[in-house]
Amino acid sequence: MRGRGRSPGYCGDVDFGDRLFADPDINWQPVSPALVKERRLPAGVLGLAGAGLVVLGSRASAGGWVLVAVGLAVVAIAAALWFIVVPRIVASWRYAEREQDLLVSHGRLQRRLSVVPYGRMQVIEVSANPISRRLGIATVTLVTASAATDATIPGVPNEAASQLRDRLAAKGEAAAAGL
Fold it and tell me: Which member of 59, 84, 88, 175 has the greatest number of CB atoms within 10 A?
């Protein structure tokens, strides 16, 4: 019988749902907190648009209350994204290098764990848009033989991204040589 308030993966003293995606025995690396700033930008733009609707509605003579109501709703959604959703989503991203593979885990509601064997890596891409460059972070993407592999790690500090790229390339070459 399942206890109250327990997650669906809970059994006794071990919560298999959490352990599957965040094994405490693995040395997980978090992404940079600067990723929160980058991911908050769309919420900020949405909030400004909502504020614009409020101002426009307050100056309208007839039916302005509709614009004010919609604007306030948009501002509330933007605030929830800014303060609650974005920080939690960014905090869910993590990666770990193991002897034979790389683990990438992310997601709050829909969790995802990708295991990428070093021998399957074909290309390691490091990219950064202008905002990422300003914040000193990059995205590391692993391209494998499988098109379905989701092996993207956003928000890696530039120096760590460079080192990760070099380590993964060396491990990939070593694994390919051993095949």
Answer: 175
